[in-house]
Amino acid sequence: MDISVLGNHRLLSLLFFSVVSWITATTADAQTNRKTKPNILFIYVDDLGYSDLGCYGNQYGTHFIETPNLDKLAKESMLFTEAYASAPLCSPSRAALLTGKSPARLKFEFVTKYPSDDFQWNDDAWVKKFNDFPLIPPPYTLNLPLEETTLAEMLKSFGYETGIVGKWHVSAHNKVYNGWDKTFGPQQQGFDWAEEIVGAWAATPKDEKPGVFPADALTDKAISYIKEKHDTPFFLYVSHYYVHTPLNTALNWLVEKYKAKSEKSGLGYNNERIKYAAFVETLDHYVGDLLKAVEQAGLRDNTLIVFTSDNGGMPEVAFNRPFRGSKWNLYEGGLRVPMLIRYPGVIKENTRNNTPVVQTDFFPTFYELASGKKNTQKDIDGKSMVSLLTSGNGKDLENRALYWHFPYYHPEGNVDKVKNLPIGIEDQYISFTKPQSAIRKNQYKLIHFFEDDRVELFDLTNDIGEKVDLSKRHPDIAEKMKKELADYLSNVKARLPKRK
């Protein structure tokens, strides 16, 4: 054989293997990039109780509400049994989610209001509002400051497209309840695409037929965004108004279904709880539509989906069992929420995780997924969950303290309505909350009440319903945790209620 020909063959072989190696490496890089930079679909719902979903409720003997789509998602996800909202109410939870900072650090601890409600400390109206109470809470914070870096702004810096549809609620109401402020709205906080829309939650359905759910404009807008062509990964924040009260637009055919179910089972639920069940199943249907859209768009494998709630459920309608408390207070019923996270091929499906996590953890988690690096901001309260999600190993999250701060009364100043009522527990229809803060570390949780400097200590491992106060039995643990809580509040310069 001609030596020159042999040399050409060798050259061609080398060239061939080089091309194959380059293609293989490029494919591997693309796969790695896909897994480190997923699309993120964050489904945030309003006032959902811990046991409202079948995948949670059945664990505690609640089989009432049917949630087939979310139950299916749970089987494809990591389900968290000890996931916490950052606050027992809407606005501060959402502000904390967006920034990775606790409400105490942000000085954003209550729901935002209309601008006219912005009373100051020296206003007679503000002092008079709490005339019948021993303490005066801090003035309302109306807007998440523009200088705060949000999830959307952070993800944009790593090449993400960002979108939001639905509820904002971290700025003063504009014209209508929950109307987006034009100065402090999503588009001033890093969202490229934003749709201010309420959807079917507030729309009375027409021509109802059993088994048929009306179109939900909020879900339809989200689906359109998902199916658009995206040149880079996207972060879509789907912020529902479901299942917040009022329940006036509950589908009649679903109401009749749950009324019959309640009567047949002997549960005897009242009409409001029955309408609430209809609301939860309606929400489940719309979440199912979103999940189908992800499949149809061919995005299932490279989309991380989070489903969770902004706080615990309303005391008069939600199923917060087996926990004490509800929305508006710092017992577990006000803070512990359902949380499902799906990322095919990365998060092992159909797993349960009992590591305590809190919603400020999403900021550093998404930072690491988007950048491949740990977030090093010192004023971030959350910690990355990436290792927990990918391996089930939560060592970085063990032995840490979680904090909550609610320096307000609720109801806000109507002493006649709440006089002599205890703090609400599950199934009690009025929940009266006094200014309080809380800390959880490992199995112990302590709540500090500011009015009388009283504390309650619970062992959540053995007393999940927070029925037995151990503060007198273990004064050393109580005192240590109380000091750790006070030190944290001091370090973040938390606003405290004041004596008159």
Describe this protein's structure.
With 500 residues, the protein is of the alpha/beta class. The chain has 2 domains: 38-392, 3-Layer(aba) Sandwich (Alkaline Phosphatase, subunit A); 405-499, Arylsulfatase, C-terminal domain, CATH 3.30.1120. Helices cover 33% and strands 15% of the residues. It contains 15 helices and 15 strands. The strands form 3 sheets. Strands 1, 2, 4, 5, 6, 7, 8, 9 and 10 form a 9-stranded mixed sheet that branches. A 4-stranded antiparallel sheet has the order 11-12-13-14, with helices on one face. Strands 3-15 form a two-stranded antiparallel ribbon. A hairpin with a 4-residue loop joins β13 (444-449) and β14 (454-459). α8 packs parallel to α10 (271-296) and α9 (252-265) crosses α10 (271-296). The radius of gyration is 25 Å and the shape is globular. The protein starts with a helix and ends with a strand. The model is unreliable at 1-35 and 418-430 (pLDDT under 50).
**CATH superfamily grouping of the largest domain:** Alkaline Phosphatase, subunit A
Envelope shape: globular
Q: How many domain units? A: 2
Number of strands: 15
Write the element-wise H/E pattern from the N-terminal end onward.
Answer: HEHHEHHHEHEEHEHHEHEEEHHEHEEEHE
What is the CA-CA span between the terminal residues?
Answer: 103 Å
The major β-sheet equals: 9 strands, mixed
Helix count?
15
Mean pLDDT across the residues is 89
Keywords:
500 residues; alpha/beta; Alkaline Phosphatase, subunit A; Arylsulfatase, C-terminal domain; 2 domains; nine-stranded mixed sheet; four-stranded antiparallel sheet; 15 helices; 15 strands; globular; disordered N terminus
